[in-house]
Design brief:
By secondary structure, this protein is of the alpha/beta class. The chain has a domain of 172 residues: Carbamate kinase (3-Layer(aba) Sandwich). The chain is built from eleven helices and 20 strands. It has an eight-stranded mixed sheet, sandwiched between helices. Strands 5-4-7-8 form a four-stranded mixed sheet. It has a four-stranded antiparallel sheet with strand order 13-18-20-19, sandwiched between helices. Helix 1 packs across helix 3, helix 5 runs parallel beside helix 7 and helix 10 crosses helix 11. The longest helix has 25 residues. The C terminus is likely disordered. The protein binds aspartic acid and magnesium ion. Magnesium ion binds next to loops.
Amino acid sequence: MALIVQKYGGTSVADPDRMRAVADHVAFTKRHGDQVVVVVSAMGKSTDNLIKLANEVSSVQPGREMDMLLTTGERVSMSLLCMALADRGIDAMSFTGSQVGIITDTAHGKAKILEVRGDRLREALAEDRVCVVAGFQGVSTAKEITTLGRGGSDTTAVAIAAALGADACEIYTDVTGVFSADPRIVPQAHKLSHVNFDEMLEMAGAGSKVLALRSVEFARNHHVPLHVRSSFTWEPGTWVTSEEPSMEDPIISGVVTDSSEAKVTVLGVPDRPGISAALFEPLAAANVNVDMIVQNTSTEGRTDISFTVPLADMKVAEGIVAEVAQQMEAAGVTHDNDIAKVSLVGAGMKTSPGVAASMFRTLAENDVNIQMISTSTIRISVVIASSDLEKAARCLHTAFGLDSGQAYSAPLPERK
Ligand code: ASP
Ligand code: MG
């Protein structure tokens, strides 16, 4: 008997038909003899709709009240699913995040899980019940209801799987797995049967929306194997595990695109110690996720600093940056919202030089101008104009041999 955590995203439970289809699958898993804990997201676009509603009512939106509002979406899903399970003769019980002891910090809207107690889950499982948990939420150390950030139900599922020592955490969504690129942008993209945690982390960090970044971190740190698959086709999807790629695996696993960021440039910043800290500390304190940072070499004691932030954080960032720029007597601040980020991700990069050069050459040949570059051991990202996004993603996908699903192997160094 295995313990399986199944997470169903918003599209998987979007309407009564979908809800019944999910109930059928949960019932099937349970009758197969496994213990099941289900984590559900809010139905369809209901979280978006709740946010819209809040926007129409208020411009202040205190974090505590937003979280009270947004957590209702998942409560709707959990109770309806339990009712559908009851119809199928399955003894199921719904729980809020708070009820199962998902303890978070106090950062409303983007709370981090500190601990999963899970006592009520263990009790209900021992009584042979299916547990259905509301995703995306917890209760803070200050006893307030919190949310984990958009897409946070993935994190709920993985955290519960880790706490209960589950055998696998299945993430059901509207795509059949993790692809070599977003198929809406690159039609030749193919499904990956397996990626490792490091690659998935880089993909999520680079803007892949398939899994929330924090859920992958959690899965890696707690060794929870993930299976990303579709609740529309139920076919095998993509496994995300700690397994390292083998020699035959492609060097590049995927091209990741992201148009959710904007670029900020602070011009004519005095080039002296402490300036970057003065700029990025208040942004960090305001929970603005700064991604890429580029600082030019200085001329005459002044330099430019450019960085990217999520478009969603732009309002907050703008205010902070304007103030800091004034304090440090910078020459000015500019913004560019029409940017996109394209990244190549692949664990094989570690052992294969020349990938960055090939990437830049491919972009040059396709007349794509690079504005910023950042790298990790297994990722290369560039910021380009958003109008170049499709072209860049497609040419890289082709150049690195991903169109046909075959490996890109780096040219052997020339022998002297
Ligand atoms: N319902 C929340 C959202 O839409 C959480 C989730 O779906 O994971 O962001
Ligand atoms: Mg959702």
